[in-house]
Structure formats: C-alpha cells, structure tokens
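Exercise 7b. Backbone tokens:
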C-alpha cells in the first residue's frame, strides 16, 4: 500500500442519541466502577432510610456483580434497616453454584452487611401446601429442568407474594446484562418473555434459550417502578450490545426495554 493510496479509515461509530433518562458513568476499569457504583448505591440507601425509615434493594446475580457486592458490603449504610431481595433467580436449589441467592449470601451478606434482611425466592420453609413435593423435585438430579418447569408457576406466585410484602415500590434495583442482551431473566425471543415484559405481577417464570435453568424474574412493571435503577456493563462485548440496544426496544435484545425513552431514568455504569 503506497502513501498515495492509504488504507481506508475505519468509519466512526454512528452517534447514538441517548434517551433522556439514560445517565452514563464511564469508568476506567471494572474495579473503579464497582467502587463508584457502591458509593452511589450506599448514598441512595441512606437517603431512603432517612426518608422512610428503611430501604429495599433488589440485586441481580451472575458473575458481574461480585466486585460490586464486595465494595457495597463495606459501605457506611445502616444495614439493619436494609431489606434485600433479588431481581431474578435460577430455578435451582440454593446450594447449587448457579443460585443467585447463594451469590448474595457469599459476597454481599457478609461483615456489617449481614445485618440486612434477605428475602430469597426459593428457600424453604414454609412452602405452601403442595410445594414441598415440587421443591424436592427441583433437587432431583434425574431431570431437574423438567421438575423446575413444573414447579415454576407456583414458585413465581410465591415469590410475588414475598415481593408484595416488601411494599409496592423497591428503592434501589441493580441490573446486569448477559452477552445475549438479556437483563434480569428476560431472555431474547424466549418463552415467558412476553409475560415478563407485560405482566403486572411482581414475579413470573421464563425459560431461556441462551442460558441454563428455568428462571424466576421481576417483571418490567416492577423493574421500572423502582425509585433508582442501575445497569452495570463491563467489557467490549457488553458495551457493544448496549450500543445496539439503545437504537430501539426489541425482544431480540430485552435490555432495550429498560433503556427506551418510556422506561424513565437509569444509571448506566460502564467499564472497558
Ligand atoms: O443469568 C443471569 O445473567 C445476567 C448477567 O450475568 P453475568 O454473569 O454476565 O454478569 C444477570 O444480570 C442475571 O441476574 C443472571 O441471572
């Protein structure tokens, strides 16, 4: 290639108009993102406690929030007044390594933060009549997915009751996103997605095509009702998916339904 004939320059990324509620926080690395996000959330929890005497916090699972949880648990928060719950859960027993409740217990409910109350979604007892048998089936290694699917509607109803007992509106809610564009357990073009996006009950069940385990998840109505919403994204793949999701709401990228104009304010935490 001669100097007279230079290679074509890479086209710049087209500028994407941010919906008005999207507030981006660009951080230097995942560790600094975890700290900045933890400090912001701690402030929001303390504000809720000052205003209403307690704070509710719903957290996502997966691998990404571990660093955040480990920063958050060290923050100066009146943890005894914090009521913690989940954004979504995998239909597995709580001892299973994929359990989001297990993740929360191991990485967030430690030290002073262990004073927080935790409403998990799948832990017994007391199970309502009929669910004991279904809970046992969940642990059946012969066919755990089939057993979880049979149990899922009743488990979603039970989790919904638990959510309602926390109040109509969550104070702070933390979302993650998978590389496939799912958030919470709203999976692309999959069974249960319609109910997750349009249902009015707090929790429904879904069946991912791009990940393991039947799921329980908060519905969009409950996610969008939360007073403060955060979405954390680290790594080139997730950042690229996020850019695509900003374009328009689409069931192919369910995270887009928390980014669209109608969804209201959300803090986006971004790191390379
Ligand atoms: O399955 C899930 O995935 C997403 C993203 O997880 P990550 O491992 O990529 O961080 C998570 O937000 C969700 O809570 C979880 O159940």
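Sequence design result:
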């Amino acid at each position: 290639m001669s100097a007279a004939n230079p290679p074509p320059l890479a086209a710049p990324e087209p500028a994407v108009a941010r919906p008005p509620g999207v507030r981006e926080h660009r951080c230097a690395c995942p560790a600094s993102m975890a700290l900045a996000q933890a400090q912001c959330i701690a402030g929001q929890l303390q504000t809720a406690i000052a205003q209403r005497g307690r704070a509710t916090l719903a957290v996502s699972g997966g691998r990404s929030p571990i660093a955040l949880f480990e920063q958050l648990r060290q923050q100066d928060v009146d943890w005894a007044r914090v009521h913690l719950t989940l954004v979504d859960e995998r239909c597995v027993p709580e001892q299973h390594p994929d359990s989001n409740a297990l993740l929360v217990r191991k990485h967030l409910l430690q030290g002073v933060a262990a004073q927080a109350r935790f409403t998990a979604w799948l832990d017994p007892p007391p199970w309502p009549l009929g669910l004991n048998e279904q809970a046992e089936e969940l642990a059946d290694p012969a066919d755990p997915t089939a057993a979880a699917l049979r149990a899922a509607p009743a488990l979603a109803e039970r989790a919904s009751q638990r959510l309602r007992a926390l109040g109509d509106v969550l104070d702070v809610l933390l979302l993650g996103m998978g590389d496939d564009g799912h958030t919470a357990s709203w999976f692309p073009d999959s069974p249960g997605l319609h109910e997750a996006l349009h249902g009015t009950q707090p929790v429904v069940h879904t069946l991912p095509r791009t990940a393991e385990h039947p799921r329980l998840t908060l519905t969009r109505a409950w996610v969008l009702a939360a007073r403060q919403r955060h979405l954390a994204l680290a790594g080139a793949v997730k950042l690229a998916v996020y850019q695509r999701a900003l374009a328009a709401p689409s069931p192919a990228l369910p995270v887009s339904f928390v980014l669209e104009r109608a969804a209201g304010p959300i803090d986006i935490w971004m790191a390379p």
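Instructor comment: Helices lie at 30-52, 66-72, 100-107, 131-138, 144-165, 193-198, 220-225, 236-245. Residues 22-271 form a domain with the Rossmann fold fold (CATH 3.40.50.1360).
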